[in-house]
């Protein structure tokens, strides 16, 4: 369905908004030089996603640049599809639009919008994209949906190239594949702490797992984590892969065996203002 080649393993750079533009370009070039075929980045309250995608596409030669994900509350559907077509036309086979409903606090408190029912709002947004009256006259470019719950995963299977779950355990990947069917692309993001010091790594992992927990509680209980609120070691280990490159490689293989087509790695560090170049390099040596 798509000419995009994400490969098996990519990078999800969650802190790119923290980097000045020159460092942003250097980080993107480093990711490409290491051999990663895909680079994902989020949209929260920093740079606007389509503009940042253009910066990253211009700083690289062949890496697929993916929004992971662009908020549907940040721009109307016609603007989104026009920007998507523009980038897809300018950088053939290199731009993937990932769309998401964001979080209620960001939508209401930061952007000043009303947060609507997630699946119905996303469906209406896709309807408006698909009937947009203008934009570069090129074939429809692929899109993926940030999807965790059953209904959003099913919508991704119906209306997108694939689904993009972020920060969920292997059990969720297996569940997502069963809902998506064999043809829909499944690109998961794995949180990673690459650190030989288990104690320091565990503290960092627990902090990020705690931040990700609130909108995943029900899903995690359904997956067998009955006491998810306690954030015990089993759950932290399920959400965040900790250890050396070999440990991370095993987790990647587990996701692929569970049905993922692509795994992007979000490397967590104690210095988020600095690109984790060493970690990206060590992982590339093991995985690519």
Portion in beta strands: 15-25%
Tally of DSSP β-strands: 10
Sequence stretches where pLDDT stays below 50 over 5 or more residues: none
Largest sheet: 8 strands, parallel, barrel
Overall geometry comes to globular
How many helices? 12
One letter per element, helices H and strands E, the order comes to EHEHEEHEHHEHEHEHHHEHEH
Strand order of the largest sheet: 1-2-3-5-6-7-8-10
Alpha carbon gyration radius? 18 Å
Mean pLDDT value: 92
Q: How helical, in percent, are the residues?
A: 40-55%
Distance, first to last CA: 25 Å
What does this protein structure show overall?
The protein has 12 helices and 10 strands. It is α/β, with parallel strands linked by helices and 288 residues long. It has an 8-stranded parallel beta barrel with strand order 1-2-3-5-6-7-8-10, surrounded by 8 helices. Strand 6, helix 6 and strand 7 (162-163) form a beta-alpha-beta unit. Helix 5 (118-130) packs parallel to helix 6 (150-159) and helix 11 crosses helix 12 (277-287). The longest helix is centred in the last third of the chain and has 15 residues, at 198-212. The model has no long low-confidence stretch (mean pLDDT 92).
What topology does this entry show?
Elements lengths: L8 E4 L8 H13 L4 E4 L7 H11 L4 E4 L2 E2 L5 H14 L4 E6 L3 H7 L7 H13 L12 E3 L4 H10 L2 E2 L6 H11 L4 E10 L3 H15 L4 H6 L10 H7 E4 L1 H13 L4 E6 L9 H11 L1
Parallel strand pairs: 1-2, 1-10, 2-3, 3-5, 4-5, 5-6, 6-7, 7-8, 8-9, 8-10
Helix pairs in contact: 1-2, 3-5, 5-6, 8-10, 11-12
